[in-house]
Every structure is written in C-alpha cells, then in structure tokens.
Design a protein that fits this description.
It holds the Pfam family ABC_tran. Keywords: ATP-binding, Hydrolase, Nucleotide-binding, Repeat, Sugar transport, Transport. The chain has 428 residues and is an alpha/beta fold. Helix content is 34%, strand content 22%. The structure holds adenosine-5'-triphosphate.
C-alpha cells in the first residue's frame, strides 16, 4: 500500500495537546495527524515529549488541554483500557504481557472462550494459531511466552491489540532491543497492518528505520512541535537539524575533530588485550583513546553487553590484561573499575542503573558515595554543589535535583549513572 495522500481524512487527529508536570511544560500545544494505512514516525531527542504525547493521548496521564479525534469523532480516553476500547492500542518497548503464561493465554487474556464457566483451551489455541498465522508466525502457542524472543513477544502484543480491534497502533520504541533480523520480522508485520488500513505511530531513535518503513514524520523538540514532513525526499541532515535544532554547518564542522581522533597514535587511555572469561566472552582486544567513542556492534546474543560488563568488572575476567594509562591494572570488580575512572550505564537502567524512587540528587550522590566509601559521607553543601555540576554537565532536564529519577525520560535518567566513575570519568 502506498503512502496515503496528505489530503486524506485523518484517522487520528491530535490538536493542541498540552501537559505540564509541576512547573515544567512537557508538551506545549502539539498536533499530530495520522491517516489510515500510514506509518508515522514520532521523533525527537531524549526528553522531547514523545512518551508524554503517547500517554496523554491514550489516557494514561491526564492532559491539560487539547483534543483527540478518531475518525472525526472526539474521544476522551481516561485509561489505557478505554483507549483500547475506542480503537487505539499501544505496545511499549517493555512488552506488557505475562511471560509465564502461554502465548495463547496471553493473546486471549481476559476474553478466553468458555463453556459452562470452563476455558476451552483447544479452541483458544486454534484461534491463537490462526491469529498469528495472519502475521506470518507459526509457533507453538501452548509454550510460555517467555520461551520466545523479544521480537516474537512484540508481535504477540501487536496481534492481541489488533485482534482487540485496534485501528491505531502506537509502537513505542519496539526495535530498541531487536537485532536486524528481528527488526525485519517486525517490519513485515507493520507492512501487513498498513495494508489492512491500520494507522501506526512508530517511535524510534533509529533514523535508518524511519527511512525504511515510514511515510511521514512528526518531530518534537522540548515539548513543542517542530514540524510534520513526508519522509520521501526529506534529506537526513535536514531531519537531524529538525531534531537537534542546530544548523547543518554546526553538525558538519564536528567531522575534522573526529578524523583527528581517529589518527591519534598516542598512548591509549585504556586497553584490554586477550581479555575474556571462559563460557562468557571469548578473549577480545579493545583500545580506548582520549576523546573517542567506540561502538560495540553485533547481533543480539553476540556478546556486546557481556563485553561491557567485563570491561567494567561486573563480571570478572579470567584471562588477558587491562592497561590504564600504560600501567597494567586489575579490573575484577566494579569497585576496581570505578577506582580507575570507568563509569557504566547499564542496559537495564531501571533495575541496574538507578534507584527509581530516589531523587536525582540522591542517585548522583549514591553513585559518588560508592567511590568514596561509606565511612566518609559527602557533606550536604558538597552534595548540592556536585549535584548542580552534574545536572549541568549531563544536561539533565528538567534541572531539578529533588525530582524522583524514575519520572525523567529514559535516556536522561540513564545519564545519572555516570557520576559513579567520576574522577573525571575516563571511559564508560
Ligand atoms: N511523570 C512525570 N513527572 C514529571 N516529569 C515528567 C514525567 N514524565 C515525563 N516528564 C518530563 O517530561 C519531559 C518529556 O519526557 P518524555 O519522557 O515525554 O520524553 P521522550 O521524548 O519520550 O524521551 P525519551 O526518548 O528519552 O524516552 C522530560 O523532561 C521528562 O523529565
């Protein structure tokens, strides 16, 4: 199915959506128009307001102002369940299903076919197989959902939503933890839904994926609408400019710096030679130079996370050497790594990176305190100074030290893990 015409009537029409959290305006009069059979990317830097828009449009949080129309009719969902009942379903990055139940039970949770009060399991499994076949999936629906990859779990969540008669499907960063092959499976499903006339809002940080699958984009910045554009013919640099709000020349002039760093042959800041752990990560070599960002690329399961955990001492290496500033050091624990100036932003932010119930200040101080040891508590005045410094340095928005960290956007709260290795941090 082609891109729907720009003058086609909107399926979902959001106007002037506004939402503040205390003094901070997270959304300021934002519009979004989605047409039937359209895949519409919702883009913006961390903290731009994408999640707030989704939550306010689907009744997860109350909006301060704005209207939402589905097929021309004004709607006002007061909860996620009400949004689903009106035809708008959201599938989040962390799939909201029950991993210990079977695939079929998850697909029909709360609406199992029954007879005389008993669940008709065979019929439910048959229906589940037929439903998934429509998405090109042929799997054992009696097996627990947890037995399957995140991609399959996403497809199950999408299938359930569509079966609950979703006409608008919101996918909030569904590809963040998928490998290339799994992204392709998900895209196939998205194309199928598009051909059925379902409108999809797709939140992602991967611009290549936007160009691969989307028809139109809406860009937000600091809670405001920057613009809506068709993807075809939109240069990538122009898109980046819309997201960052900086001129292209400014983005371009950073290149020579990068080339100079690449040509740097001075002593590495840190290096790892034949570093590894048996039955965990094969021995590898990693060289970190001043001012560089080293990307670890690979498919899911290839050992990227494990490599990072070894470098930070979260798993102890059993072979190889680590060298920091030319001196061989032992990195057998996070404490060793922190002492040598390493910081770590873990993949599992909520469970490993932050304490969600504590404030920004408490999380930053906690990270610093780990390095100082528990016998030398940081005096309150120093805590305030250091917290203010990190809030500036890490660009934590809103710059409120007393805000519970769990309320910040995903990537912003992840940055708060960084002070752990501050000395300043050499590598993270
Ligand atoms: N429940 C909340 N309470 C207070 N502030 C919030 C809450 N939810 C979001 N915010 C703030 O609103 C702003 C927009 O956040 P939002 O999560 O919508 O951004 P985002 O574009 O989805 O970012 P990311 O890509 O990092 O998920 C941020 O400054 C965030 O700190």
């Amino acid at each position: 199915m082609d891109t729907p015409r720009a003058d086609a009537p909107p399926l979902l029409d959001i106007r002037g959506l506004t939402k503040s959290f205390a003094a901070q305006r997270a959304l300021d009069g934002v519009d979004l128009t989605l047409r039937a059979g359209e895949i519409h990317a919702l883009l913006g830097e961390n903290g731009a307001g994408k999640s707030t828009l989704i939550k306010a449009a689907t009744g997860i949080i109350a909006r301060d102002a704005g209207t939402i129309r589905l097929d021309g009719r004004e709607i006002d969902p007061k909860s996620g369940a009400e949004a689903v009942a009106t035809g708008i379903a959201t599938v989040y990055q962390e799939v909201n299903l029950l991993p210990n139940l079977s695939v079929a039970e998850n697909l029909y949770l709360g609406r199992q076919p029954t007879r005389f009060g008993l669940v008709r399991s065979a019929e439910m499994r048959r229906n589940a197989r037929a439903l998934l076949a429509g998405f090109g999936l042929d799997i054992d629906v009696a097996a627990p959902l947890a037995d399957y990859s995140v991609a399959i779990q996403h497809i199950c969540a999408i299938a359930r939503s569509v079966d609950l008669s979703a006409r608008v499907l919101i996918l909030d960063e569904p590809t963040a933890s998928l490998d290339v092959h799994e992204v392709e499976i998900l895209f196939r499903v998205m194309r199928e839904l598009k051909s059925r006339g379902i409108g999809i809002v797709f939140v992602t940080h991967f611009l290549d994926q936007v160009y691969a699958i989307c028809d139109r984009i809406t860009v937000l910045r600091n809670g405001r609408l920057v613009g809506e554009r068709p993807v075809a013919g939109l240069p990538k640099l122009e898109l980046v400019r819309m997201m960052l709000g900086r001129e292209l020349a400014e983005v371009e002039t950073r290149r020579p710096e990068r080339d100079a760093v690449a040509a740097d042959t001075s002593m590495p800041l840190a290096r790892f030679d034949a570093f590894g752990r048996s039955r965990y990560v094969e021995p590898f070599e990693l060289v970190l130079r001043r001012g560089t960002v080293v990307g670890l690329a690979g498919l899911l399961g290839s050992g990227r996370t494990e490599t990072a955990r070894l470098v930070f001492g979260a798993e102890a290496a059993d072979c190889g050497t680590a060298t920091v500033d030319g001196t061989t050091v032992r990195i057998g624990s996070p404490r060793d790594a922190v002492r040598h100036g390493f910081g770590f932003c873990p993949e599992e932010r909520k469970t490993e990176g932050i304490v969600a119930e504590l404030t920004v200040r408490e999380n930053i101080v906690l990270a610093l305190q780990a390095r100082r040891g528990w016998t030398r508590p940081l005096p309150r005045r120093e805590q305030d100074e250091i917290t203010a410094r990190f809030i500036r340095l890490l660009d934590i928005r809103p710059a409120d030290p007393d805000r519970p960290i769990g309320l910040l956007s995903g990537a912003t709260s992840r940055r708060c893990c960084l002070p752990a290795g501050w000395r300043p941090i050499r590598a993270c």
